[in-house]
């Protein structure tokens, strides 16, 4: 039974896990350094992480978990999350880290589904996450996995009802092959899936042009 602390959510027995990194100069958004410089990359990363944390927190869709690479007590994390909501990632690559988070969350008897998202997609909003949760909870057409693809061959959201560690294995993370290989893994394991509409994210210098329309949104968080 969901605790009273979680009773005000639309999906109190679900969790939304945000994956992030400690915002350290020279260690975030490094592919964008030629265009933005070290300080610009850090400012952009802080803005995008802040934006997704506020989006999830204020959505009241499901309780939030923040999974970070290091330093769970960082001031930016604690600005948006309680310390009890922050967890350390474990694993050698992104797949192992997501598999660990999925196992940790979904092995809890009070949790029946999990959405994992990152901070690279500034156009992800409450409605998009809600559609992912709705697909996971659909009883008329049940699925095992929900994916939110990106336009460059990856994904910005994955939803699960079971840990499904195999979905994260043998994937070339950070390449254009991520989505294709993930679909192959799901087919190999006979998993039924639902695809949300594709979104764009910010990974490479050519992606920065899309940010021009979001200047006002990002300016809100550039001072954090």
Automatic annotation (TrEMBL):
InterPro entries: Nucleotide-diphossugar_trans, Trfase_1_rSAM/seldom-assoc. Gene3D superfamilies: Spore Coat Polysaccharide Biosynthesis Protein SpsA, Chain A. It holds the Pfam family DUF2064. PANTHER family: GLYCOSYLTRANSFERASE, SLL1095 PROTEIN. This is MobA-like NTP transferase domain-containing protein. It comes from marine metagenome.
């Amino acid at each position: 039974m969901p605790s009273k602390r979680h009773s005000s959510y639309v999906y109190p027995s679900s969790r939304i896990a945000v994956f992030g990194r400690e915002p350290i100069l020279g260690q975030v958004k490094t592919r964008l350094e030629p265009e933005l410089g070290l300080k610009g990359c850090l400012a952009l990363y802080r803005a995008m992480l802040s934006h997704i944390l506020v989006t999830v927190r204020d959505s009241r869709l499901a309780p939030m978990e923040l999974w970070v690479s290091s330093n769970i007590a960082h001031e930016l994390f604690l600005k948006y999350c309680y310390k009890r909501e922050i967890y350390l990632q474990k694993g050698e690559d992104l797949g192992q880290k997501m598999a660990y988070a999925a196992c940790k969350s979904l092995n809890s008897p009070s949790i029946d589904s999990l959405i994992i998202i990152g901070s690279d997609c500034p156009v992800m909003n409450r409605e998009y996450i809600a559609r992912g949760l709705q697909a996971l909870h659909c009883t008329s057409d049940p699925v095992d996995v929900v994916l939110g693809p990106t336009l460059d061959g990856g994904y910005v959201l994955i939803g699960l009802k079971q840990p499904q560690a195999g979905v994260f294995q043998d994937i070339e993370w950070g390449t254009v092959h991520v989505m294709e290989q993930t679909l192959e893994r799901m087919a190999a394991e006979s998993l039924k899936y639902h695809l949300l509409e594709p979104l764009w994210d910010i990974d490479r210098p050519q992606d920065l042009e899309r940010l021009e329309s979001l200047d006002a949104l990002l300016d809100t968080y550039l001072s954090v």
